[in-house]
Amino acid sequence: MASRLFGTKIEETDTELVGPWRAPRQMLQAQSYDSHASIHDDATAQKLGFQGGTIEGPTHFSQFVPLCVEQWGIEWFRTGCLSAHYRNAVFEGEEVEAILAKPHDGVRQGEIRMIKRDGTEVLRGTASVGLNAPPTALELRLGELKPLSDPVILCDLKLGMRTQRQRVRMAFDQNMGELYPFSLRQKLEVITEDSLLYSRTSDNPFGRPIIPMEMLSVLFQYKAREDRLPSRGPAVGLFADQEIRLLNGPLFVDQEYELEREVVAMSGSRRTESLWVRTTVLDPAAGASPIATMLLNHAILKDSYARYAQDYAELYP
C-alpha cells in the first residue's frame, strides 16, 4: 500500500519498519508573532543558545506516514495518530531517519523514534490506529506531569479555559499567515514524503486531495493569534510535545472546518513554562462532529521574556 501511495523506500526488519534518510527543509525563517522573530529565525535561536533556526517539529511527522500506512493500510488516514515528545532540535542540512517498531499481534500501536546520523534522538513516541488503541505516549506523559508552580508567563491562565469556535480552511495557494508564511503548494514542493493523495483526484482512493499530517498542525494553529490565550510576552517558545489524532479523517484541501482550544495542563522546567492545549476540529458539514484533535505542549523559554525576573518578584514577593 505505501509503495503505491508514496515513493518512499522502506526497509523492513523482523522488528522495525525504517524509512530513508531525509534532510527536511526549514520554511519558517520569516515566521513572526508578537511582532518579533521566532525560534526558527537564526539570530533569535542563536541568542537563546541554539545552533540556528530550528526545523518545526511536525515537519518530521511526514516521514512516519508511509511507515504507518505500510503497517496498517489506508485505515491509518481515517483513525491514525502520531504522539511524540521532541527531544532534540534539527537544523537545515541535517539528515534524519524515522523508525516504527512493529506492534505485537493484535496491538494497534507501535513505538516511534527519529534519529540523526550521529545517533542523536530527535523524537520518541507512539503511532497508532483505531479509536480503541492503547494510551498514547502523550496521554501517559500528561498523567505524570507535575503542575506548574509559581507561573509568571502563564500566570493569567487557568486549566479548562476555552477559546471561541473558529472556522478555518487550507487551499493550495493560501498563504497561512505570519505564523506559517507559506502555502500548501509551496510545502508540497519540498515535503520529504510526497504522495498522489496530496495533490491528485485521479487514482486517489479518497476522491480528492487530503491535507498532509504535518500540515494539519499548520491548519490547527492557523488562527491561534486571533484567539490568544492570555500569556505574558513577548516571549519565544517551541513545540516540546505534540500529538495529532484522526477520529474520522482524512481532512481535505479547501474544505471548511471549525476548531476550538482548551487548556488541559501547565507544567515547567528550569528553563521553560509549558502550556498544554488540546485543539478539537469539527466538520460543520457533518453536524459539527469531532473529526480530529491536536495536543500541543508549547514550551516558552523564560530567558526570552525580558521582564521575567521583575514579574516574578512582583508576583511572589
Mind sketching the topology for me?
Blueprint: H1 2-5, E1 11-12, E2 16-18, E3 32-33, E4 36-37, H2 42-47, H3 61-72, H4 76-79, E5 80-86, E6 96-101, E7 109-116, E8 121-129, H5 137-144, E9 166-168, H6 184-188, H7 213-221, E10 237-246, E11 257-268, E12 272-283, E13 289-301, H8 308-315
Antiparallel strand pairs: 1-2, 2-6, 3-4, 5-8, 5-10, 6-7, 7-8, 9-11, 10-13, 11-12, 12-13
Characteristics:
317 residues; alpha+beta; Thiol Ester Dehydrase, Chain A; 8 helices; 18% helix
Can you write the helix and strand succession as a string? Answer: HEEEEHHHEEEEHEHHEEEEH
Q: Which class of secondary structure composition applies to the elements?
A: alpha+beta
Strand order of the largest sheet: 1-2-6-7-8-5-10-13-12-11-9
Radius of gyration: 19 Å
CATH topology, by name, is: Thiol Ester Dehydrase, Chain A
State the end-to-end distance.
61 Å
Task: Supply the CATH superfamily name.
Answer: Hotdog Thioesterase
- Give the biggest beta sheet: 11 strands, antiparallel
CATH architecture verdict:
Roll
Average pLDDT across residues? Answer: 90
Q: Could you characterize the architecture of this molecule?
A:
The chain has a single domain (2-315), classed as Thiol Ester Dehydrase, Chain A (Roll), CATH 3.10.129. It starts with a helix and ends with a helix. The longest helix has 12 residues, at 61-72. Strand 7 and strand 8 form a beta hairpin. It has an 11-stranded antiparallel β-sheet, sandwiched between helices. Mean pLDDT is 90; it is low at 35-48. It is globular and about 65 Å long. The chain has helices at residues 2-5, 42-47, 61-72, 76-79, 137-144, 184-188, 213-221, 308-315; strands at residues 11-12, 16-18, 32-33, 36-37, 80-86, 96-101, 109-116, 121-129, 166-168, 237-246, 257-268, 272-283, 289-301. The protein contains 8 helices and 13 strands. By secondary structure, it is of the alpha+beta class.
